[in-house]
Design goal:
The chain has 697 residues and is of the alpha/beta class. The protein is built from 30 helices and 18 strands. Bound molecules: (2S,3S)-3-hydroxy-2-methylbutanoyl-COA. (2S,3S)-3-hydroxy-2-methylbutanoyl-COA is lined by residues 22-23, 25, 58, 61-66, 77, 98, 100-102, 105, 124-125, 128, 130, 132-134, 136, 272, 275.
């Protein structure tokens, strides 16, 4: 294993070049080597200044997140940064790429900070349920003040070099070779007799007594569901009211409280789960051009994602008016991103220019990748893939965006099934991060690796899943939705169910989601499902609403009314009457249903269905299921996903509740999946089961 850093001399300036792939995370071995290097250079009389720089694309991506579940090993980052800041000669941070979390705190412990244009500096700890625990809460306010510190740390979003320079976090922008620029600057500093500038020597800026109380009051209610945001404010407040070292001690205490929380464990679990299995880069084919078939909402969204990531895109639609509308949507959406500051105007113009329209499939003969997003009908898709199989070049990968149809049936029509797989985007495709990559029976390794690589390149999370009805996400959605539909008939209401699940942390309750997606869409899909349970109560209310033309937001009425100018959902007495009438017709007894039952039945139904999907090999791991539900269905990230959550509750407790519902509801839906039952029996967890499989146990 190579050394995690190297010392390079440039005359009287010594450069510490961190080299700890893939992102220079401050793992134990890097901290140890860095401490040794600092002590050596600080005591070397021939060294007049030190530059700290990172090899690769990043400065330092932060502490090593994987170390937080193990006992901390000295030197702790706090100690290391105290020693770095204590150097008796100027230390210049040469920043590029990511300088995040502990990486930003390391930059703060340096005396001077230079950065290139690709800098992304910030404090994302809050997204991991943590807080900056290595001095950031004490040093940062001394440099940029309280408001910027509160924004950066409770928001967690990195900033670029211009913003960092504007607030004083970066002293000097260097375009081009930041290492060389920093070395030249270090020489200037030495020549000018500049001394080390230590933030710990500065007093904390004045803070009004109300500042932190006002900040707390302004934080959204959802921020208080997590341990970190409030504790970040506490840590910063301690910096305003206590001497440096005591404030640092307080920050460490608060950090430890966060680190031990189940929310932080869940968020750190997801961080690695979302980076999943290896990208199999060696097998991936090169993709620089793509064709998208179908210029509707999904096709345009997919085209936007591809073009924004730098791919040349040919958007094909046989209807000129649909194509024109699709191209207009692509342009307006990308230009809108520039207006919102998400990309530069120049980048937006370049992305729009990368998308061209055509009415002729033959224009796709030379593209590297085709993504079909045509009408959700098997005959239509099979016809298209038969043509694509003929006209596309041999190395092209052919993907279908189907959400419910059999990928194998579509692949077979192409005559080259090895080149075909599913690429199930979630709507809106340019926003939602999740893509289910559906493995067909004959999908080759190259095809799957190529789709994984393209998904990563367009900034999304690709999860490879098996080919069954609804794949993983929508298959589990039926179990979740089934329970809420049954509880409507049993006496609950759309607003009670949505409120209970939103309080649990779901981004949106299932009835509101149905109204958003369109109740007609679900209605059509259920008609095509040949394994639909033989139960007249199954999605009875959703079906009745769709049959009445109450499709949801698009028709102004669904589970809710959307009359107001703000289009906010309003309870609708007519819906309650309809539900009661259906319940009466079905002979379903009415009762009051507690929030706890609503959450248990919907969430445990997910875990049980997830266990079945694992047993059948449709999902490769519980973590894949959790990534799908947290990125495609709004499952609360601080609970880790349905499988992680079930582990956290305890499978024995989950099974006990399921047995209770089995007694009340009957065995049709509540018989525990054998895997779940056996794990509960031996007090196991889904995570432990997966680890055992990984070890080949
Ligand atoms: N620790 C451990 N591994 C990390 C890591 C980290 N901080 N960051 C990335 N990796 C791994 C990742 O798992 C993947 O591994 C590979 O690097 C490439 O990652 C003390 C408490 C830097 C913007 O939250 O945001 O510091 O899959 O695919 O798209 O107070 O990684 O290859 O095996 O994301 O180019 C705070 C997290 C930590 C930053 C690069 N820092 N990382 O994006 O690559 S807490 C963060 C990122 C902390 C201090 C506090 C991104 C990136 P594998 P990738 P990328």
């Amino acid at each position: 294993m190579n050394a995690p850093l190297a010392i390079e001399r440039d005359g009287s300036v010594a450069v510490i070049m961190l080299d700890h792939p893939p992102v220079n995370a401050l793992a134990h071995r890097l901290r140890t080597a860095l401490l040794t290097a600092i002590e050596r250079l600080d005591s070397d009389p021939t060294v007049q200044a030190i530059v700290l720089h990172g090899a690769g694309r990043n400065f330092i991506a932060g502490a090593d997140i994987s170390e937080f579940d193990q006992p901390a090993q000295p030197p702790l980052l706090n100690e290391l940064l105290f020693r770095l800041e204590s150097c008796n000669k100027p230390v210049v941070a040469a920043l590029h790429g990511a300088a995040l979390g502990g990486g930003a705190e390391t930059a703060l412990a340096c005396h001077y900070r230079a950065a290139t244009s690709d800098l992304k500096i910030g404090f994302p700890e809050v997204t991991l349920g943590l807080l900056p625990g290595a001095g950031g809460t004490v040093r940062l306010p001394r440099l940029v003040g309280w408001k910027a510190s509160l924004e950066l740390m409770t928001g967690g979003k990195p900033i670029d070099v211009d913003r960092a320079t504007a607030i004083g976090l970066v002293d000097r922008r260097i375009d081009g070779d930041v290492r060389a620029g920093a070395v030249a600057w270090a020489r200037e500093l030495v020549a000018g007799g500049a001394l080390p500038r230590r933030l710990r020597d500065l007093g904390a800026p004045e803070a009004t007594a109300e500042l932190f109380a006002e900040w707390r009051a302004a934080m959204p209610a959802t921020a208080w569901r997590l341990p970190a945001p409030g504790r970040i404010v506490d840590a910063l407040e301690a910096s305003a009211t206590r001497p440096f070292d005591q404030a640092l001690d307080r920050a460490r205490e608060l950090f430890e409280e966060c680190r031990r929380s189940s929310e932080s464990r869940a968020l750190r679990y997801l961080f690695f789960a979302e980076r999943g299995s290896s990208l199999d880069r060696d097998a991936a084919l090169r993709v620089e051009s793509a064709g998208v078939i179908g210029a509707g909402t999904m096709g345009a969204g997919i085209a936007i994602s591809l073009a924004t990531a730098g791919l040349a895109v040919t958007l094909v639609d046989s209807k000129p008016e649909s194509l024109a509308a699709g191209l207009a949507r692509v342009a307006s959406t990308i230009e809108g991103s520039a207006r919102k500051g998400r990309m530069t105007v120049a980048d937006a113009a370049a992305a729009v220019a990368r998308v061209r329209g055509s009415g002729d499939l033959k224009e796709l003969s030379a593209v590297d990748l085709v993504i079909e997003a045509a009408f959700e009908n098997l005959a239509v898709k099979r016809g298209l893939f038969a043509e694509l199989g003929e006209l596309c070049k041999p190395q092209a990968v052919l993907a279908t965006n189907t959400s419910t149809l059999d990928v194998d049936a579509i692949a077979a029509a192409s005559g080259r099934a090895a080149d075909v797989a599913g690429m199930h985007f979630f709507s809106p495709a340019n926003i939602m991060r999740l893509v289910e990559i559906v493995r067909g029976r004959e999908s080759s390794r190259a095809t799957l690796a190529t789709l994984r690589a393209v998904t990563k390149r367009i900034g999304k999370i690709g999860v490879t899943v098996g080919n069954c009805y609804g794949f993983v996400g929508n298959c589990m959605l039926y179990a979740y939705g089934r329970e809420k539909e049954l509880m409507l008939l049993e006496g609950s209401t759309p607003e009670a169910i949505d409120r209970a699940l939103e309080e649990f942390g779901m981004a949106m309750g299932p009835n509101a989601v149905g109204d958003l997606a369109g109740l007609d869409i679900g209605y059509q899909a259920r008609r095509q499902w040949n394994e639909r349970p033989d139960d007249p109560r199954f999605y009875r209310v959703s079906d009745r609403l769709a049959e009445l033309g109450r499709y949801g937001q698009k028709s102004g009425r669904g589970f809710y009314r959307y009359d107001g100018s703000d289009r906010k959902r309003q309870p609708d007495p007519e819906v309650l009457e309809l539900i009661r009438a259906e319940a009466k017709a079905l002979g379903v007894a009415q009762r009051k249903i507690a929030d706890s039952e609503i959450v248990e039945r919907c969430i445990y139904a997910l875990a049980n269905e997830g266990a079945r999907i694992l047993e059948e090999g449709i999902a490769a791991s519980p973590a894949d299921i959790d990534v799908i539900w947290c990125n495609g269905y709004g499952f609360p990230r601080h609970r880790g996903g349905p499988m992680f959550h079930a582990d956290t509750i305890g499978l024995a407790i989950v099974i006990e509740a399921m047995r209770r519902y089995e007694g009340e509801q009957g065995p049709q839906y509540w018989t525990p999946t054998p895997l779940l039952a056996s794990l509960a029996e031996r007090e196991g967890t889904f995570a432990g089961w997966q680890a055992g499989r990984a070890d080949g146990v």
